[in-house]
Structures are given as C-alpha cells and as structure tokens.
Design goal:
Layout (H helix, E strand, L loop, with lengths): L2 H19 L7 H8 L3 H13 L3 E4 L4 E4 L1 H12 L2 H17 L2 E8 L2 E8 L14 E3 L4 H9 L2 H7 L17 H14 L2 E4 L6 E9 L5 E10 L8 H18 L7
Antiparallel strand pairs: 1-2, 3-4, 3-8, 4-5, 6-7, 7-8
Helix pairs in contact: 2-3, 5-9, 6-8
InterPro entries: GAF-like_dom_sf (IPR029016), HTH_MetabolicPath_Reg (IPR050707), Tscrpt_reg_IclR_C (IPR014757), Tscrpt_reg_IclR_N (IPR005471), WH-like_DNA-bd_sf (IPR036388), WH_DNA-bd_sf (IPR036390)
GO molecular function, one term: DNA binding
Pfam families: HTH_IclR, IclR_C
C-alpha cells in the first residue's frame, strides 16, 4: 500500500480513538461503525488491529470496545512532553512584546489552578504566578475562566458547599450561590476577571482554551496594575489576548470552542 493509500486508514484510526475517548464507557463495534460512518467490515479489522497494539481493549462478555493501556501511555507521554508550555511560551512572549503587560498560562486541577507559563513584561511588577505555583481557582481570573467553561453539574461537584471554598478575607466567592452568580456574569461577558484578589493593586482578565468537546484545557491571562487600566478597558484587554488563546488552541489541534 502506498503512503497516499494509508492516509484514510490513519484518519479512521484517529477518529475512532478520539470518539472512544469522549465516551463514558466501552462501545459496541456496530455503534462505532454507525456513529463514525465506517463500513462494518473495516471497523472490525481496525478494532482488531488496535486491540493487538494495546490501544483498545475488547470486553467479550459485553461485546464492547474501550481504550487500552497503550492509550494511557500516550496520554502520559503527552504530559511529559509539556505541549502547553512548549507551544504556549513563544505565543505569550510575543503577546507580552505587543501589549507591554505580563501574561500567564494556567491549567485547572481540581479546585486549583497551576501555572505552566509566565511571561513578565519589562518594568512590570513581580507576580506570584510563577511556573508551578498553585492558587485556589476561585481567586484567579484563569481559574474563573475555566470554571465558567465547565458544565454546571461539574461546578457543583467541585464546590458542593461553603466548606469547599478557600477563604482569604477578600471579595472572592465563598459559597456555591456566590460562585454561580460570578460565573454567570463571566459567561455573559465572554471573559473572566479578578481585581486585587490575588495581589493588591493588580488585576487580571483571562480567556479559556477549550478542546473539541468544549472542555477547558487551559486559560491565558493578562495581569496589570489596576490603576493603569480602568474597568471599562477590560473588555479591550480580553480581546487583545483572545488571538493568543485562539492560536494556542489551533496549535494544539483543537477546534475553536464557543
């Protein structure tokens, strides 16, 4: 088979793996063929090959197929290679040069954000958001952007009651109702913000980066002195960082989320 002839099979393999990764559990072969628009015979041959390679598992009693151990190894390799940091750092650096303010890239882990890239602008204040630092998501613009991109049941699972909230004596939400109200405002505005809740005198606005299923995989934030950028300028700052978030999303091979 020529290289050109192998491309359709490679695309079918990628589509099948991505489809299974989005399911809650193993799926029958007939359903896979139907949902992906593949011939049944080709689907069974493809499934057999992927089972042999360890990328899929066959559950004979259920007559279903699910992801295998080798698929998990791919995910671990993805994390080891730090694609967000590698792809995000040059994009954030270019945005810092263009905007003259510091930018960060963070991911959501449970109720915390973890910073994976920080690009500080010249002559700008030092920030607490160094690489590897964890902060409660409810305080940060990045965390709020990602929480606003989650389904409401997922937010409830993370913050079931007031005991789930960190307290620092500031204006951050401290109850599920306050958080719901804030996230509704963020969804309506199209960007997230915080003002002095991480560092006094500094504010941030952020935009979430979503995967093809709409799940927030990261957020880009710009941080600035709040006395230099009044609130009526924050929508413009959010628009200024949106191309960076969109380009990183594109480079990660995802479709732009809503």
């Amino acid at each position: 088979m020529t290289g050109r002839g192998q491309v359709p099979a490679a695309r079918a393999t990628a589509r099948l793996l991505r489809h299974l990764a989005a399911q809650r559990g193993p799926v029958p072969a007939a359903a896979l063929a139907r949902e992906l628009g593949l011939p049944r015979s080709s689907t069974y041959h493809l499934l057999a090959a992927l089972v042999e390679e360890g990328l899929l598992l066959h559950y004979p009693e259920e007559q279903r197929y699910g992801l295998g151990v080798a698929a998990s190894e791919l995910g671990s390799g993805y994390l080891r290679q730090a694609p967000l940091a590698r792809l995000g750092a040059p994009l954030l650096a270019a945005a810092v040069d263009r905007l003259g303010e510091s930018l960060q890239l963070a991911v959501l882990q449970g109720r915390e954000v973890v910073y994976v890239v920080e690009e500080r602008a010249r002559h700008r204040p030092a920030l607490v958001s160094e690489v590897g630092v964890r902060l409660p998501a409810q305080f940060t613009a990045s965390g709020r952007a990602m929480l606003a991109a989650l389904d409401r049941p997922q937010v409830r699972a993370l913050y079931p009651d007031a005991g789930a909230f960190a307290h620092r004596g500031d204006a951050a939400p401290t109850s599920p109702g306050e958080l719901r109200s804030l996230l509704a405002s963020i969804r309506a505005a199209g960007y997230a913000w915080e003002d002095g809740e991480v560092s006094p005198g500094l504010a941030s606005v952020a935009s979430a980066i979503r995967d093809a299923a709409g799940w927030p995989i990261a957020a880009v934030a710009i941080t600035f002195r709040s006395d230099e950028h009044p609130r009526d300028s924050w929508p413009d700052l959010a628009e200024a960082i949106r191309p960076t978030a969109t380009e990183l999303q594109r480079r990660l091979g995802r479709q732009v989320g809503a």
